[in-house]
Write a structure and sequence with these properties.
This protein is an alpha/beta fold and about 280 residues long. The chain has 13 helices and 5 strands. It comes from Paenibacillus chibensis.
């Protein structure tokens, strides 16, 4: 069952509910409004008012629609396997990452992915922004894309310092944004400024319902876990690595030439700057 909210103005509470339901459709038949309210950190009355957004009278009617349309998904199969594993088994815990990868792959639109790769390949400069744990993704994107000869600039983490580099962004440039959990003031500024000045934005997010999705030039979804869980970076890293490989494939000759030049440079100065293992 697919939820669509195009051209609808949802309250912040209803956005969280819609995002949660989009990710957990298979669990809804077994939940009550109190469960959903707790999972989304909203009031029960907010949940009760939400059903009108999906053209239902109440949760009971929505559940029936879900039961009528829902099929067994790969995610359900994985969860079934997890329930049989020993919770103290570290190897079993690794499979949680596989579930996030599956969710990310299931929601990956090839057209959006191809467009994202083209944006990065054709950009004059790729600016990268990602606060908190996403700083690891910023560093990875910088390291990998620079290898291809792409000009990469990291944006400051937040506050007014963001403007120091943002003022230099040109229409031919792209900002790669890692925006998780919610739309921060910094993300709102980046997306609004892009619209005003005409440059492109590539948003990587774990949200399925958010005003940000409509503002970005291209959006890619990645699963990281629920609001109350430890947010995994397994799927975001895998998605980013896959995207970078796609960029390299599109600019194959330039990428290969850059790798060869790097090899020769390392070889020439090996004694002065040996590679550390």
């Amino acid at each position: 069952m697919e939820l669509t909210f195009e051209n609808r103005k949802l309250t912040r509470g209803h956005q969280r509910i819609a995002d949660y339901i989009s990710k957990h459709m298979e669990d809804i038949p077994f939940m009550v409004e109190e469960d959903i309210a707790s999972a989304c950190d909203v009031s029960i009355s907010t949940v009760s008012r939400f059903w009108a957004e999906v053209n239902c009278k109440n949760l009971k009617e929505f559940k029936q629609k879900v039961k009528d349309e829902m099929l067994l998904s790969p995610s359900q199969k994985l969860q079934s396997a997890f329930s049989k594993m020993n919770e103290e088994d570290a190897a079993a815990s690794l499979w949680v990452g596989a579930d996030y990868l599956q969710q990310t792959a299931d929601r990956l639109a090839q057209e959006a992915f191809d467009q994202a790769a083209r944006l990065l390949r054709e950009a004059g400069t790729v600016y990268v922004y990602g606060p908190g744990s996403a700083e690891s993704l910023v560093a990875l994107a910088d390291f990998r894309l620079s290898r291809f000869g792409i000009r990469v600039t990291r944006l400051d983490r937040g506050g007014h310092e963001l403007f120091n580099r943002l003022v230099h962004v040109q229409p031919q440039d792209v900002i790669l944004i890692f925006g998780f959990v919610s739309e921060s003031p910094e993300l709102a500024v980046l997306l609004d400024d892009a619209k005003e000045r005409g440059y492109r934005t590539l948003l990587v997010t774990d949200l399925l319902v958010s005003p940000m999705l409509e503002k970005a030039t291209v959006t890619l979804y990645t699963a990281r876990g629920q609001l109350w869980e430890f947010h995994s970076m397994v799927a975001p890293v895998a998605l980013l690595e896959t995207l970078i490989v796609a960029v390299g494939k599109q600019m194959e000759e330039q990428a290969v030439a850059g790798s060869e030049a790097l090899h020769q440079l390392r070889k020439k100065y090996h004694k002065l700057l040996p590679k550390r293992i």
